[in-house]
Amino acid sequence: MQNQVAIVMCNRVGKEGDVTFAGQSVVVDPYGNVVSKADDQEQLIIADIDLTQTAAARKQRPFLELRRPEWYA
């Protein structure tokens, strides 16, 4: 939400040795709302992303203007 871009995150599912992968892949809009989310099973999720929401979100909540890059180490 603070970067005000759509995010698509893919995560593994299943087991490999002693490791169990949780899945829970997700698509999030620029407002931070979950558009689509997978569970812990292998699957394909499809979501429509409105790219015009990015400009609208940045206008409504100008988080990027509050950044202070001169403070970054």
From TrEMBL:
Enzyme Commission code: 3.5.1.100
Alphabetical keyword list: Hydrolase
Keyword Chaperone (UniProt): no
Residues annotated as domain CN hydrolase: 1-51
Annotated family: Belongs to the carbon-nitrogen hydrolase superfamily. NIT1/NIT2 family.
PANTHER family: DEAMINATED GLUTATHIONE AMIDASE, NITRILASE-RELATED
Protein name from the UniProt record: (R)-stereoselective amidase
Gene: ramA
